């Protein structure tokens, strides 16, 4: 009775503040609606002990309860995220543990490899359920805003290769090459001599298969290698969706390594997620805590200002900076729709728990980008203090018709 009376009081308080297309069903059959419209999301509390998650509805608490099966939630993921965030905003103080806290982790080759494999080595078949056919697992580029995912991902790759002004026969290092889409495109379109590195064994195996299928083994080498162990000199370097794993404390070292590997007149580009909090804090209401626990162990996001500072400390000069936040919001929204459309296949491949983790994670990312909690920047750079003769005077070359 005590738990039920607390829930009734909590429900009354919420109703006084906001209306939501939400229904909460209790173990005894009682239900609470928070709007006159039909509920889009239903949260079922199967026993009194599970009510504690609802009474403190942070993104971490409710996300954990859903993932672990302590509560049942039905509805579209985008509606789930929007409604849970509204509950958190209305009932919790956005300070202390629920604020944009700053956490940093100890990074080593062993820990980084373990974190990468935890996230990426679910199975290649798992990622095929929601990615485009090239399996590009990073922000797409919607040049006109209406492209389908496959077209937008190809445009993103071509946009990057245009930005670094890749020339025929040049050498290219792709740090965190995923399943090989960028290096394959660079070799096919420009005849570039490419090295792609990854710490994911599954990515390594499939990327090598795809290079062989494309008949590009003479131009593309895929390595299972840490970026800190790469040697040599490259005309161009790309890093797409990788530096989030580096660690804020190690960003200057990371950029210094790019400086060491880059030819004196070379061009590099870093494409990565950033925090929009000036202090490089996590997403609010426990969102960062949930992601670290279930999705991206050891992941850290730096504010753009800190990234540019670390880049300069690594003796690199930023030539061009582009914000693609809304592009990533759209990308994640499409991934979420694809994921939900193939829910049964995903569950068969990865199990119910991992389905629930990714169900809320993908939609949560779309929401976080949409709300400007996190962002995405492409930064073109080169060795500091040198004249970037490889680049034209204006940015027009990035959008030439023959590079579209």
TrEMBL record:
One of its GO terms (biological process) is methylation. It holds the Pfam family DUF7884. InterPro entries: CFA/CMAS, CMAS, DUF7884, SAM-dependent_MTases_sf. The keyword Methyltransferase applies. Residues 14-94 form the DUF7884 domain. Keywords: Lipid metabolism, Methyltransferase, S-adenosyl-L-methionine, Transferase. It comes from the Bacteria. PANTHER family: CYCLOPROPANE-FATTY-ACYL-PHOSPHOLIPID SYNTHASE. Belongs to the CFA/CMAS family. This is Cyclopropane-fatty-acyl-phospholipid synthase. It comes from Pseudoduganella violacea. The lineage of its organism: Bacteria, Pseudomonadati, Pseudomonadota, Betaproteobacteria, Burkholderiales.
């Amino acid at each position: 009775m005590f738990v039920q009376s607390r829930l009734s009081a909590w429900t009354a308080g919420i109703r006084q503040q906001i209306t939501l297309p939400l229904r909460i069903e209790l173990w005894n059959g009682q239900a609470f609606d928070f709007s006159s419209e039909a509920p889009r999301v239903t949260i079922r509390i199967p026993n009194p002990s599970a009510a504690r998650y609802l009474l403190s509805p942070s993104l971490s608490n409710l996300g954990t309860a859903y993932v672990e099966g302590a509560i049942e939630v039905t509805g579209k993921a985008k509606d789930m995220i929007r409604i849970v965030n509204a509950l958190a905003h209305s009932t919790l103080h956005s300070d202390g543990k629920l604020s944009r806290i700053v956490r940093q982790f100890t990074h080593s080759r062993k820990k980084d490899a373990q974190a990468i494999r935890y996230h990426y080595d679910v199975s290649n078949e798992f990622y095929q359920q929601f990615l485009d056919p090239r399996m590009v697992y990073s922000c797409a580029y919607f040049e006109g805003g209406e492209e389908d995912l496959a077209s937008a991902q190809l445009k993103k790759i071509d946009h990057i290769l245009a930005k670094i002004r890749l020339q025929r026969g040049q050498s290219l290092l792709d740090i965190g090459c995923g399943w090989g889409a960028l290096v394959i495109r660079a070799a096919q379109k420009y005849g570039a001599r490419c090295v792609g590195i990854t710490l994911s064994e599954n990515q390594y195996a499939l990327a090598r298969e795809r290079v062989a299928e494309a008949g590009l083994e003479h131009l593309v080498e895929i390595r299972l290698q840490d970026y800190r162990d790469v040697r040599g000199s490259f005309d161009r370097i790309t890093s797409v969706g990788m530096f989030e794993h580096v660690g804020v404390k190690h960003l200057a070292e990371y950029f210094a390594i790019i400086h060491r590997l880059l030819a004196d007149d070379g061009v590099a580009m870093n494409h990565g997620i950033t925090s929009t909090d000036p202090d490089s804090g996590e997403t609010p209401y426990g969102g960062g805590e949930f992601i670290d626990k279930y999705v991206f162990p050891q992941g850290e996001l730096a504010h753009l200002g800190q990234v540019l500072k670390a880049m300069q400390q690594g003796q690199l000069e930023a030539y061009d900076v582009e914000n693609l936040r809304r592009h990533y919001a759209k990308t994640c929204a499409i991934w979420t729709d694809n994921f939900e459309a193939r829910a049964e296949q995903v569950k068969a491949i990865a199990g119910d728990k991992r389905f629930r983790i990714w169900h809320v994670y993908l939609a949560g990312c779309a929401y976080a980008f949409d709300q400007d909690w996190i962002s995405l920047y492409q930064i073109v750079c080169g060795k500091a203090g040198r004249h970037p003769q490889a680049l034209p005077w204006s940015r027009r070359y990035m959008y030439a018709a023959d590079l579209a």
